[in-house]
Amino acid sequence: MRNSWTIVVFLLCSQVVQSQRVRVLPEVEAYANESVNLHCEFTNAGATKLTQVSWIFEATEGQRENIAVYHPTYGQSFPQSAFKDRVQFTQPSLENPSIKINNVRMSDAGKYTCEYATYPSGNEQGTTTLIMLAKPKNSASPVAAQASGGKVVVARCEAAQGKPAATITWMTNAAGDFNITSYPQPDGTVTVRSEYHMAPMPADNGRDITCVITQQTQNHPQTFTIKLTVQYPPTVRIEGYDDNWYMGRTDAMLICHADANPEVVNVTWATVSGKMPPTVKVVQNKLLVQKVDESVNTTFICEAKNSLGSSKNQLTAMVTVEKRTEPVGSVTGAVIGGIIAVVILCLIGAAVAMYRKRLQSVENGDGPPKYKPPPPMKAGCSTEMLHKPKDQTTMVTETAPLSCYEPNYYDTTAAEPITDLDDENPSSPANGGTPSTWQGPGHPPGTDESISDTLPPYEPTSHDGLEANHGPPAAGVSRGESFVSAPMLV
Ligand SMILES: *[C@@H]1O[C@H](CO)[C@@H](O)[C@H](O)[C@H]1NC(C)=O
Known about the structure:
Layout: H1 2-21, E1 22-23, E2 27-31, E3 36-38, E4 41-42, E5 49-58, E6 64-71, E7 75-77, E8 87-89, E9 99-101, E10 110-119, E11 122-133, E12 137-142, E13 145-146, E14 152-162, E15 167-171, E16 176-184, E17 190-198, E18 208-214, E19 222-227, E20 230-239, E21 245-246, E22 252-261, E23 266-271, E24 280-283, E25 286-289, E26 299-306, E27 309-316, E28 319-320, H2 332-364, H3 376-399, H4 407-412, H5 448-452, H6 459-469, H7 472-475, H8 479-485
Helix pairs in contact: 2-3
Bound molecules: 2-acetamido-2-deoxy-beta-D-glucopyranose (NAG).
């Protein structure tokens, strides 16, 4: 036992002595195509005779290959190897047999041993590890995604052919996650890719998301700010109606606004009856009423299309014989509304004051319990309050510019001029030739009505658009499938 320890210690010591005599750097780093110097020196030779020195390359453990030999009598020799013609002794001598390797390759990474043949102690050596580095080629890009409700790839980030491998992270407050995949390259570098996944909403279009690439050869992490591209079918609203279309008026106009990505390719105006009144002129998304008459006392429909689908909205114009003397919506409405508000506030104030007074008198006096039912006075007040706000709502909705159909408003204002065609009986539409189902903006995604609205005539355009803007995940999706899935969007 004791003996074996002595042997181990002796071996360790002799190792130290040897490595001290052949001096090399433990590690050298290099980039491809550079040249690299590998130093070697025999120190404190003393009585030791140096007969020959060799450089041995070891790409992987155990595969030794002589790449350069120096003998004081026979001179330099460079055996056939991947280094031939790229390796040379910087100043050929036994004392300093350093070599220079030109045009280093990623595959030159490995161990280089400077090995002396000596007498009488035998071989002595020192080993340098050459670490090949590669700056990654970094890039990032958005991936056009459809607002479909499902998680999809919305952005990509790549650090190509780096060594060592880069790390990728994402900075965003978007609710998503990312994966990272490493692809080892034949030359020893690694390409790292990351994809950010989320369920994009139309509102995420244009939103920033940041990818951060960190790698040893970079002084700083590199960041890429990516603008998300989210595609969605149009949502349509009609503006410009002031609820004052009187007979003979000449400057009435409706404007059809559509929010969509990609851009709306087509905006069309129609009426429920199917016929366009003769006094109406359509200029792009505007419907100009050159002269208000009975023919425009109708419901106008605007439809907008993009490659992902189409959507309609409608507005019912009410033609009056007489001009409204005052624009009810702006001045009178505000005044009446204000008066009502003041009255309500007074009533609430009075009720609260009275209630407090009563509570106080209850607390001061000692008789009745605290949870006494409210006095009849207060009950009367709350009934009053129930009525008043209702009056006010009616007033406001009547006088506000009736520009846009909002599904929320529909239920509360049955007397509104605006009607929802969706609620009409689809089997008996009032409008002969037009389709019996309409897609309103308030429709839940994926309803049958939505599907019926994705029109085949736009197939070529939309197909191109899908192909061009879609990342690899959708590349295999057939034309038919695209169209079934497109209306599933919001
Ligand atoms: C417009 O139509 C409504 C009914 O929809 C009707 O009450 C009104 O009198 C019409 N106005 C004109 C000027 O014909």
